[in-house]
Design goal:
Blueprint: H1 4-19, H2 25-39, H3 47-66, H4 71-119, H5 140-148
């Protein structure tokens, strides 16, 4: 009887361990998406979107704690993952808008200099740059700041 006690205890502990499941796969995916958005070097360009993703993840984690494996927990994790993806896309879109504005200014400046040279008026003062179109957002300082942000070590 004594020889079987350790075996019985080991089997019962193994059964308990098997019954305890980790977090739902949806929540794990949502956490990974939020971490990816946080570690994005351009994340300072989408601070509001990143904050929304973090808040949505907190809601998903609370929902998973209170109601594990429920549809509400899965839905909240889905929302958190999508908010993190929106943060990544917003930061990329803003960086691209900034690059486009910079390219337009560079093109305008080079085009104006070429026209002045062609007219033979190189000594004339350089004309002012036109204003950016209304749909352009000049985020050059923000992009430069985001690129200068030190990288965090890999985990």
């Amino acid at each position: 009887m004594r020889a079987g006690a350790p075996l019985a205890m080991a089997l019962s502990l193994a059964g308990c361990a098997r019954g305890v499941a980790g977090p739902p796969a949806e929540l794990v995916t949502a956490r990974a998406a939020v971490v990816q958005a946080q570690e994005n070097p351009l994340s300072p360009l989408a601070v509001a979107e990143l904050r929304q993703a973090e808040q949505a993840l907190a809601i998903a984690e609370r929902e998973a704690r209170e109601h594990p494996r429920s549809a509400a927990a899965r839905d909240a994790a889905y929302v958190a993952r999508r908010r993190a993806q929106c943060s990544l896309l917003s930061s990329l879109a803003r960086a691209n808008q900034s690059a486009l504005a910079r390219a337009r200014r560079t093109w305008w400046t080079s085009k104006t200099v070429e026209e002045l040279r062609a007219r033979g008026t190189s000594g004339a003062p350089e004309p002012a740059l036109p204003p950016d179109p209304p749909d352009d957002v000049d985020l050059d300082p923000d992009v430069d700041h985001a690129r200068a942000r030190p990288q965090q070590p890999a985990r």
